[in-house]
Amino acid sequence: MIGPEEGGAEFPQEAFRNSPETVPEGACEAATEEILLLRKRIATLLTERPRAVRLPAELEQRFEEETGDERSRYLVLRNLVALVLINFFLFSDRFMIPDMMVHARVVRLGLITPAGLAVTLMIRRGVAPAVREFFVELITVMSGLGVLYLVLFSRHPNAVYYHHGLILVLAYANNVVVLRFRAALAVSVLLSLLYIGAIPFFAIPLPLPVAAHYTLSLVATAGITLLANHGLEQGRRYSYLVGLRERLRGDALAADNTRLAELSRLDPLTGIANRRGLLHHLEEIWNDSSQRPVGIVVADVDFFKPYNDCYGHVQGDICLKRIAGTLRAALRHQGDLVARFGGEEFVVVLPGTSADEAFRIAERMLRNVQELAIPHQEGGDSGVVTISAGVSAGQREDGRPPLEIIEQADQALYRAKEAGRNRVSCLDPPAASASF
């Protein structure tokens, strides 16, 4: 009875695994459409805005979610290095502004260092991205104000050479810490304006050419480091978009491959498993069920060739689809499987099911098919389409391969056919047969 697999012309619309956790089709379509829209937006951004330093809100949020932890680790390390450098300049303060040493210790050790450590600890423990970036900007401004304060009030002749300290602050913040571009721009403008505004108030007045030189140097440094900062920020987002695009492509390809693998194990007419799907599922169940029996039901539509001859192949296909749906509806839980094994023959796999229990399930299937009341003039006394079924059960510990269990159930099906059809038969003891 076990013959070659046959197919129809219709495309299957549902998976053959009978799981109560199946994702609704509408939800899958919505998710797929959302991903397609995202891929289009990414392609547009890479083409039209390749140098953007800030992405649209949704993508910027996603960028932060996926890179935020790495950014936090990056800032923690750079903050610690900055604090070491800030305090290292105490050695320079001793020779350049010795009259401000007490103030230098207060500024560097008493203000900037504790604040920097607090911010670093806060970032390490995790804070909102906006809070994290704000406090990094705040420490940058504090560092710049600290340098400006020391040179503003020092009366030592060497203090005039100390003005370039602000250049180091901007270079480190914009290109090492890499503040967000808008923040880097705001900090650079603020510190530059504060320096320009402080020029008339330095304890040691600067000659106009020197003041102009220092101002030009500071503004030029701000511009150069901002240009570099823009490139770094743009590069990060561009690389992220390219990586995200490739990940989405990979996910789509993997989903397509998974779908193709599923379709290759589906019967195109009925939407249930085909022979390949049955054998794949049975192998998985067999490997996972060494201590549990696996029940097998082989069912065949009675007098199906006369039905096709009488009603036509279109009605024959409809009949097979209705029977397949009825058999599937009789299954109990995830792991149970019904497959079209070929032509009008179906195989049902019932993990954790003894022969007796499989027999009762097969009886219920027979009743359900008969209750469909599909007219069949050539179908015997019942006048409707019926099925016959053979039942067997086994487990891996028995030493028998699963195909042997199917073969045994097929032999029981022969017995049911010979006994008059529309019945269930089982070769396993206790031998049983029931008709309807």
Automatic annotation (TrEMBL):
<dbReference type="InterPro" id="IPR050469">
    <property type="entry name" value="Diguanylate_Cyclase"/>
</dbReference>
<feature type="transmembrane region" description="Helical">
    <location>
        <begin position="75"/>
        <end position="92"/>
    </location>
</feature>
<keyword id="KW-0472">Membrane</keyword>
<feature type="transmembrane region" description="Helical">
    <location>
        <begin position="104"/>
        <end position="123"/>
    </location>
</feature>
<dbReference type="GO" id="GO:0005886">
    <property type="term" value="C:plasma membrane"/>
</dbReference>
<feature type="transmembrane region" description="Helical">
    <location>
        <begin position="210"/>
        <end position="228"/>
    </location>
</feature>
<dbReference type="Pfam" id="PF00990">
    <property type="entry name" value="GGDEF"/>
</dbReference>
<feature type="transmembrane region" description="Helical">
    <location>
        <begin position="159"/>
        <end position="177"/>
    </location>
</feature>
<dbReference type="GO" id="GO:0043709">
    <property type="term" value="P:cell adhesion involved in single-species biofilm formation"/>
</dbReference>
<keyword id="KW-0812">Transmembrane</keyword>
<feature type="domain" description="GGDEF">
    <location>
        <begin position="292"/>
        <end position="429"/>
    </location>
</feature>
<dbReference type="InterPro" id="IPR043128">
    <property type="entry name" value="Rev_trsase/Diguanyl_cyclase"/>
</dbReference>
<protein>
    <recommendedName>
        <fullName>diguanylate cyclase</fullName>
        <ecNumber>2.7.7.65</ecNumber>
    </recommendedName>
</protein>
<dbReference type="InterPro" id="IPR029787">
    <property type="entry name" value="Nucleotide_cyclase"/>
</dbReference>
<dbReference type="GO" id="GO:1902201">
    <property type="term" value="P:negative regulation of bacterial-type flagellum-dependent cell motility"/>
</dbReference>
<dbReference type="InterPro" id="IPR000160">
    <property type="entry name" value="GGDEF_dom"/>
</dbReference>
<feature type="transmembrane region" description="Helical">
    <location>
        <begin position="135"/>
        <end position="153"/>
    </location>
</feature>
<feature type="region of interest" description="Disordered">
    <location>
        <begin position="1"/>
        <end position="24"/>
    </location>
</feature>
<feature type="transmembrane region" description="Helical">
    <location>
        <begin position="184"/>
        <end position="204"/>
    </location>
</feature>
<keyword id="KW-1133">Transmembrane helix</keyword>
<dbReference type="GO" id="GO:0052621">
    <property type="term" value="F:diguanylate cyclase activity"/>
</dbReference>
